[in-house]
Design goal:
about 525 residues; alpha/beta; Barwin-like endoglucanases; Rossmann fold; Dimethylsulfoxide Reductase, domain 2; 6-stranded mixed β-barrel; about 30% helix; 5-stranded parallel β-sheet; single chain; about 20% strand
Length: about 525
């Protein structure tokens, strides 16, 4: 997030797009409601009528995968009416003319043809967002999990910069991370092209710094992304794999292809706190410690680094993550000799500029938000106050590109996926909680009443859902949450694996799969 969670409640306008916030991020949602109580306007854009839509001043239902066309339409209206921030654009940004040239074509009428949103509503969205003194954008995987995910995020950045809604309190472009330490995993180099702190592996000075600290030669070539990994396994380029706190057999797209790759490995080790479906096909399973059984830090969605302290000892043979990693490293030939998480944190501070001032003795109470370059620095509440990291903010002129797959005669429905209120991700933890599992013990397919009637389905019937990649059986739930021609499934349930169906087509830059859009056929199942 460019800004902090608490700032949301002081915003004058909140634009939520591609985020089912009350369900997936309920504590963030409380700030949205506080802002509404303070008089803020709420705009919600989502192909599915989520709970938050009921509280919105303006709710719009864009067609799946049309976010760029919607945002370009908003920017067209803003420029046409002179609602943009000329001073901010002139002083803080570059490439503005390219943006103008592209969005000039996206009249409300043209954007309406693509998105299905009326020209009047596109105009109102633009006015609400641009005219508010402080407007903030909240988004999640409804924006990123597309073949145009990077384009979607850049478009939101364009909108923010166009109106000067970045670099000050209660504004910004704010992705809501899906799990408690996703931000921390990325910060610590959990990406194939960077070391901790997003320091590029192919930069000579950076690589030299880490080689000196770790006393080892390091490659200057980026590794494989998760989605590149499975084809590489089937090509024989990857022989062994360690999976830690992940359940790709359920969570990754085109599940049959993933299972084929995992079974082709010469060696598969899984580190987890429960016996997941992925762990069940592993050669070795190493039991890990849960959050309550280990020491260390988590970095949350607002860049806040917080201490966690062990409350109880890990059960049985379970060990803390750093101990497991160190033991594996020692046994494959690279010696690690850390004595505690604090020693590791000190190394992080010494090698990672954004974490330079973050040490255990400073992590009491609420923690610190990076960047925090030295021990005198108080942490950073919001980013880009006086300048962008690259100097001037760069506008991108982005054209709308349709999803990789569209409905046809054989597969006439759009399928989109997401979460339900009671379960999380692949259900590794929530489905092991009796009270949560009791709330929802099986998945279902949401179907619009008109579509259900045409197919001959009643509420609670079972249906066969098929895509070009496979088929599953699921109960259906008839609801107007989804529009006619669109169906929705959660991906939590192994018994009805939505990701058997989803399209593994990737964003060319981020390599994220298009989980949010694919074409399916729905039939009554006897």
């Amino acid at each position: 997030m460019t800004n902090s969670i608490d700032e949301i409640k002081y915003a004058d306008c909140i634009f939520v797009i591609g985020s089912n916030t009350t369900l997936a991020h309920p504590l963030v949602a409380t700030r949205i409601f506080q802002a509404r109580d303070n008089g803020a306007r709420l705009i919600v854009a989502d192909p599915r009528k989520i709970q938050l839509a009921s509280f919105a001043d303006l709710y719009v239902r864009q067609r799946l995968g049309t976010d760029v066309a919607l945002i370009n339409g908003m920017m067209h209206v803003i420029l046409k009416n002179g609602w943009h921030d000329e001073a901010f654009i002139g002083e803080r940004t570059e490439n503005f003319e390219e943006l103008k040239k592209v969005v000039e074509k996206y009249t409300p009428e043209k954007s309406s043809e693509v998105t299905g949103i009326s020209p009047e509503d596109i105009t109102r969205m633009a006015e609400y967002y641009a005219k508010a003194p402080r407007s903030t954008i909240l988004y999640a995987m409804g924006i990123t999990q597309h073949t145009t995910g990077v384009d979607n995020v850049k478009s939101l950045a364009n909108l923010s910069m166009l109106t000067g809604n970045v670099g000050k309190e209660s504004t910004g472009v704010n992705p809501l991370r899906g799990q408690n330490n996703v931000q921390g995993a990325c910060d610590m180099g959990g990406l194939p092209n960077v070391y901790p702190g997003y320091q590029a592996v192919n930069a000579v000075d950076i690589r030299t710094k880490f080689e000196k600290a770790w006393k080892v030669r390091l490659s200057d070539k980026p590794g494989l992304t998760l989605t590149d990994l499975f084809p590489a396994i089937l090509e024989g380029k990857v022989k062994a794999l360690v999976v830690m706190g992940e359940n790709p057999l359920v969570s990754d797209p085109d599940s049959h292809h993933v299972e084929k790759a995992l079974r082709a490995l010469e060696f598969l080790a899984v580190i987890d706190i429960f016996m997941t479906p992925t762990a069940e096909i592993a050669h070795v399973v190493l039991p890990a410690a849960s959050f309550a059984e280990k020491d260390g830090t988590f970095t949350n969605t607002e860049r806040r680094v917080q201490r966690i302290r062990k409350a109880i000892d890990p059960p049985g043979e379970a060990r803390q993550d750093w101990v497991i990693i160190q033991e594996i490293s020692n046994r494959v030939g690279y010696q690690m000799n850390y004595s505690s998480p604090e020693e590791i944190q000190n190394e992080i501070a010494s090698l990672t500029p954004s974490y330079g001032g973050i040490t255990y003795d400073r992590l009491g109470g609420e923690g610190l938000c990076w960047p925090c370059p030295d021990k005198e620095h108080p942490g950073t509440k919001f980013l880009h106050k006086d300048r962008f990291a690259r100097g001037r903010g760069l506008f991108h002129g982005i054209e709308y590109i349709p999803p990789a797959e569209s409905p046809d005669d054989d597969y006439p429905f759009w399928l989109t996926t997401g979460r339900v209120f009671v379960h999380y991700h692949t259900g590794t933890m929530t489905r092991n909680s009796p009270s949560l599992d009791q709330e929802m013990r099986e998945g279902y397919l949401e179907v619009n009443p008109a579509d259900a009637s045409a197919i001959g389905l009643k509420d609670g019937d079972k249906a066969k859902i098929a895509s070009r990649r496979g088929e599953i059986i699921s109960r259906i739930f008839i609801t107007e949450r989804v529009d006619k021609g669109t169906v929705f499934m959660s991906f939590h349930f192994l018994e009805a694996r939505a990701n058997v169906l989803t399209n593994p087509a990737l964003d060319p830059i981020a390599k994220i799969p298009e989980y949010k859009v694919c074409a399916v056929r729905v039939e009554k199942w006897e």
